[in-house]
Design a protein that fits this description.
25-stranded antiparallel β-sheet; elongated; alpha+beta; 465 residues
């Protein structure tokens, strides 16, 4: 027999290759990402429910520091209190409603908000309206913001009618110290636009604001004098970056101002303001047929003590003399001069050394129907009755070459420091075919504030200590 050499057979299975560790980690990462995606999706889906279910607490902002320089009593409540309510919107993703008080005044606001989500970045667009109680003043705004911290906002107050009966303005006037102002009535229109933004390139707020008061008319009484303002126009504006503020130049105009017996036509003022001071670069108006001007007046708003000089040019002599109490007559010619004025504590306007003089080389005419105020002073100075009578007849028809009115302080006696009015007249008078030269200087030591019927005295009935 032939032997057969058989090889042994191994029936055990061949072991399989093991899974690499990197593949196992990849599967875990995919599982975690899938879980996070599910959680984020759930959060996004539930966000409207979460946000609209929150009972938002009252928010309180204290503005005492920002309003520390405002007049006492004007803002007794210097806080802003807000309660928010968020709900799903009908025509937008959300509606945000706010109610509360702004410096003591009730306000309400509503904003329609739309959200745009892209790759974990959210952009919000909102349109809002703010109303202050029942006041006609209502602001509209549009705000765009994103999760990078950038935002921009536009605010507008369309031309809105103003009167002293508006609840907000009436409350402000009641709080202001206007005890010496009575019978106040006004109307006009106020408009305002503002833009603010914060960008990644400029990570602080940058803003501009422009406004205009127009068609403004007002009447009131102060110090026993009636005042009327017709068609005042006042544009204003400011710009800021972070805490820095620049106030735009102000150009005030009006058609007419009637005050203290004077009518000012086309009054104007060019102003530059800071937070605490006011610079009047130029101001003026037509008055008594001529012009008055002032220049470079610096006014400290915290003190209201200031001296200024009015420059007078070409005013009508007859109109100017009508403001002398007791003047009875007519006059022609023109006057020019300067009138220094001092404002004391913002309460009183006092005249200082001042003069009005006829234009050299020009001849005017003076016709006094009653020369008693002049002859009375001459009598006190010892002038005889016959001379007084002759002078009264001369002043009834006098062609003058010099007419000068000057205020100067008294220098002697108990009247020291008070004002005296000196009138100087030179010219010729024709009577019965005879021409008589006249040269006259009369000084009035009477109550000048009574004698000069200008009403340039502003009194405050509630005197401060």
């Amino acid at each position: 027999m032939r032997a057969v050499n058989e090889q042994p057979t191994d029936s055990a299975p061949i072991p399989a290759a093991s899974t690499p560790p990197s593949r196992r980690r990849g599967r875990r990462v995919l599982a975690i990402c899938a879980g996070l995606a599910l959680v984020l999706a759930a959060l996004v889906a539930l966000t409207p429910v979460i946000l609209t279910s929150i009972d938002w607490p009252e928010l309180v902002f204290d503005l005492s520091e920002q309003l520390k320089d405002t007049p006492e009593g004007l803002f007794p409540d210097k806080q802003v209190r807000v309660r928010l309510a968020l709900s799903r919107g009908r025509n937008s993703d959300y509606e945000l409603r706010a109610r509360g008080t702004l410096l003591g005044w009730p306000f309400s606001a509503m904003a329609a908000i739309d959200l745009d989500s892209r790759w974990f970045a959210v952009t919000a667009h909102a349109q809002a309206q703010l109303k202050l109680g029942s006041s006609a003043l209502a602001l509209t705004a549009r705000v765009d913001a994103d999760t990078s911290g950038a935002w921009q906002a536009d605010v507008e107050l369309p031309p809105t009618a103003l009167t002293e009966r508006d609840p907000l303005l009436a409350d402000l006037l009641a709080r202001a110290n206007l005890a010496d102002v009575t019978n106040l009535a006004f109307d006009g229109r106020l408009s305002l636009t503002a833009h603010a933004e914060r960008t990644q390139e400029v990570p602080v707020p940058k803003w501009t604001a422009r406004g205009r008061l127009q068609d403004f008319n007002a009447t009131f009484t102060t110090g026993g004098q009636n005042v009327a303002v017709a068609n005042l126009r006042l544009p204003f504006g400011a710009a800021g970056l972070a805490d820095h503020v620049d106030i735009s130049p102000i150009f005030l105009r009006a058609d007419r101002i009637d005050a203290a017996g004077f009518t000012l036509t086309e009054p104007f003022a060019s102003l530059r303001a800071t937070e605490r001071a006011l610079l009047v670069t130029e101001a003026g108006a037509g008055c008594c047929g001529g012009d008055i001007r002032l220049y470079s007046l610096f006014l400290d708003l915290s003190r209201l003590n200031v001296g200024l000089t009015l420059f007078v040019d070409g005013i009508d002599t007859g109109e100017a003399l009508q403001h002398l109490n007791g003047f009875s007559g007519e006059a022609s010619g023109r006057l020019h001069g300067r009138i220094p004025v001092r404002l004391v504590n913002g309460r009183r306007v006092k005249l200082q050394d001042a003069y009005l003089s006829s234009v050299p080389g020009e001849v005017g005419n003076l016709r006094l129907r009653d020369a008693t105020p002049i002859t009375r002073n001459l009598a006190a100075a010892g002038v005889d009755a016959a001379t007084q009578d002759n002078l009264a007849r001369a002043l009834a028809n006098l062609d003058y070459t010099v007419l000068r009115l000057a205020l100067r302080p008294e220098e002697n006696g108990e009247e020291r420091g008070k004002l005296a009015l000196e009138i100087k007249i030179e010219g010729t008078a024709a009577s019965g075919g005879v021409t008589v030269p006249v040269s006259l200087t009369v000084t009035f030591h009477d109550d000048i504030e009574r004698l000069i019927n200008t009403g340039l005295k502003i009194t405050n009935r509630n005197k401060r200590p």
